[in-house]
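[Q] Does anyone have a clean structure-token version of this?
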Amino acid sequence: MATAEPAPRLPNRPRSELSGEDAVAYDHVMATRKLGFMPNLFAVMAHRPGALRAVAAVGEHVRFHSAIEPELGEAVICHVAQILGNRYEWCHHIHRVPEALRSRIGTPAAEAEPAPAGPALRYARLLAEGEEPGDALVAELRHSLGAAGLVDLTVMVGYYQLVGSFCAALKVPLEEDVEEIPYNR
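[A] Here you go.
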């Protein structure tokens, strides 16, 4: 027997309840994410528009303006999502991971990939688990990604930890039109 999804702790806040700069922030999320719908994550966050603006801006940077290649970024997002048990982000992003790597994301096999992917995923896991990444790994990533890439990778992991905590604490549900995709094992 399947278990029911827990009830969200806050409902989505509709755009119609917002005005001025708050509505502009909502519209900006819609425009930058290009999904055709407001993701539940941000619709719930719209109860505090200042948080929506700030959090969405960091997400926009790490997703669309990062020094990290987009495919590697998507792999990092999903690696962190599986480690943290954040199925919301996992289901939103796993289809964007290169197919050759998709079945290994979230597993030790992904971390065995050649640089920069393997070391970046190992670093992401260590940070997500609250572990020290070590000087050698940081030096390797600085060499392969550059200083800007290392900063963006670190911010990306932190951002998806924040999003994972937000989704878990407020029980943000996956949208009905987003496919439920099981984690890798």
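[Q] Thanks! Anything notable?
[A] The radius of gyration is 17 Å.
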